[in-house]
Here is the input.
Amino acid sequence: MSLNSKPPEVVITPSRFRNPIGKYRLHRTDDCIGCGKCVELCPYGVHVIQAGHVLTKNHYRCVGPECPNPCHEACPVGALALNRNPTFDTMGDLRWTPDLLLSTWYMAENGTVPPRGLEYRIGASDGGFDRLRLVFPPAHRSQSEALNEDVDIGIYLNRRDGSSHHIRIDVPFYGGGMSYGSVSIITMLSRVRAAAAFGTFCCTGEGGYPDELKPYDDHVITQVATGLFGVREETIQRVRIAEFKYAQGAKPGLGGHLLGDKVTPAVAGMREAVAGYPLFSPFPFHSVYSVEDHKKHVDWIKTINPKALITVKVSTPTDVDMVAVGIYYAGAHIIHLDGSYGGTGAAPDIAKKNIAMPIEYAVPRVHRFLKEEGIRDKITVMASGGIRTPHDVAKIIALGADGVCTGTAELVALECIRCHNCESGRGCARGIATTDPELTELIDLEWGTQRIINLLMAWRKELIRILKRLGMKSITELVGRTDCLAHLDYMNK
Amino acid sequence: MPSKYMIDTQAAPNRFKVLTRSGIIAWEEGCLKCPVCAKRECIYGVYDNRDLDIMQMVDSIDNQCMNCLRCVQGCPKELIHKSVNPEYEALGDSYWTPEIITTLWSQAETGRIPVSGSGYSGPFSGSGFDSMWTDMSEIVRPTRDGIHGREYISAAIHLGKTPGHLTFTHSGDLDSKPPFLVDIPLPVVLRIPPFGPMGINTIKGWALAAKKLRTFLTLPYEMIDKEMVTFKECLIPSISPAQPYGDDLLEGVRLVEVPWGEKWKEIAQEIREAHPSVLISCRIPLAMGMEEMFLHLLDSGVSIINLEGTSSGRLLDDNSVFIKDAIRSIHLALVERGIRDEVTILVGGGLAMAEHVAKAIICGADGVVIDLPILIALECRMCRRCTKQLPCPVEIDQATSSWVASRTINLLGAWHKQILEIMGAMGIRDVRRLRGEAGRAIFFEDLDRNTFRSLGEVQEGYELE
Here is the structure.
């Protein structure tokens, strides 16, 4: 019998923009005789017949040269030409390539990975995840006959004690912290509702606990960070998991900073601050300069909410392994390691690029150290900071994490294009990372929720496929299995 | 905040439109003249504020566009597209990349730290300084907040040598002369770039910036004319052995540079005798065998050594070795001999970003010398047309000295804040303590190999995905 509760349904949810962006464009000349051959040939529905006219309606679905039935070659009058979309090449960057953006959009629309034409597994950063590969045994040796339902990708979050909540999530991920203020209430609710649908969690970030989240209390992780914005006893008592944020990967060693423009009256009210003024979340906790001080924090939460699980979010300094051990001995249930290349909010470029180490190094180091200490099976290790694809999830688990926290990928599902202008003026022009009332309305809550559900469903299916290819029945079997990985830079050397 | 912990900056607008990574292609043909046009809906008002710069023939929409693509995705006839700008991609070279150049422009314009949303977008690692990360403090070590002024972080260094110990007379007085040191509030000295269409106002502007920043500008001594004499206390004249220099030139000068060359010893000796209070800095090429040169200089009593690599941060005679590694080995050699504090090491060549300053210091330098960044601060596009006697596309020589000074101060103000960010995250409050702190850095080669070298074996028949 399967442990899993029923996963949510995929509902096809196309782009909210009139012209979805594709990698290719098909140009139709006036020579077109409207014979409909292209409509008939195309497996992806790029062309349609409308009122007797043949139109190229869905450029974005075209898979280009990888198409098995190329319409432009079959057109009897040569009226179709295949071109690369120039806009495509202006998008994205080395970590989130235009291919990854489009494939994430595909998953958010369809709930499955793209059929072909897009590289959906890796980016182009030329290191870390992008040079690591999963190693699959020859097809005949893996248990490909196992049913999808028999493969369990769920994990237990409390591996420590019987007195706190016994929590299992059916997928090896939950939503990382993004505050009300840094993102809109619709974005926040979309994430939380998707998390609830999967039986997992989503973290509030440091910006208070809006009342709109109350119906989903069982799926909310409330964050306690240095600014203590919106932290009240009542908000901590409401949840099953509370998170201490000591640092975040995008700005390790630096505090949070919400620019004045984003501090609207609603945000200010939530954070008990003054509208229009920038808010600094100082770094570090000036009440914590030792593991003993940290334990005092954990005990404080446990006094207010004795059954709550405690997760501790830290960044990745050179001594991250020592930090992790300290976190365990202070009484936490989850260590959340946030690597230097992730992050959703605004941060100094110098910090994002240079301070602290990428998650691909931190996780194996912590995993090994905790094992040597004999406490690896007493604590849950969650990783974040640049997890973009289901392949990244599988790789970081094979390196030693139990699960991951999602962030940017969910924003991309809501059609973030990573223009990096979240912090300027009224905030995100696409209505995701903004508190501007007019821009917030650009996203419909049902649409946003379903897009994230679809994305995570695609991840879920892909993870099950990966586990089956590895001959595994549970994702817990993959933890620390570096033998399932190869690094291209060290092969044949 | 006391002035020694901060640099005052004031916006100094660009004189020319900057080049952007992509441009807008908006066709007019086929336009339906919709009542609500996707262009009118632009939240940045790009199309409403559109105008054409006649002098530069630049359409302002490209500069104002923030790449949200809403117009591209909203036009019913799909008449709007974006396209990569080939002019942007052609900026600079493989080391001085378009990203570095445009970031330097914006720092020189605003004096602000570059900030952006949604994570890091660059490569995993790279060569040279890009192959190291700096550490941070967490839980068990305090960090420091220098930027917002809650704590003071000092970026000041001194130039000159300090004695290994002090000796006292029986009566308790100092038995030796106190060391002669020159303090600068940030670990950066400016140098006239190797090329560039420099007018008198350019040089004056840089000297003005050096004066306001209380650091130095190194320049060939023959550039010190009547007007420049007023800036003497913040100039480092570089003496060339080929040309004689007037003795009065050195009156009021605090530092002099003698490049490594045949007669450097004689020149240094002459200066020392005639002007005992002037500190001498010797500039040597970063190349194979420089350790010997270095120790020879130390024996001769030189107190400041300026190591100079190529403009892409490598050894002059070996393109495969980065200055980062050369500095580390020299620093360690001196530490092992117990004489590290007998000399100030300044490093130049390929210093292009604020992080390079912090990383050079972590590798063992006391401070750095920068040249091309102060040219790029003036909107230089690194096209090197000036080296072929062609006109400068951004007319650098026409800029006023006060604009040149503001742009230079803004750039260094932004760098100063970024150095504080790096040090604050590490919990270090004095840049002199950052020197040689390689244990608080993470080196790509070591860490990558240690983490992944065992992941190289794949059995026959296994598939990679």
Observations:
- Chain B has a mean pLDDT of 92.
- The first helix of chain B runs from residue 61 to 64.
- Chain B touches chain A through 79 residues (CB under 8 Å).
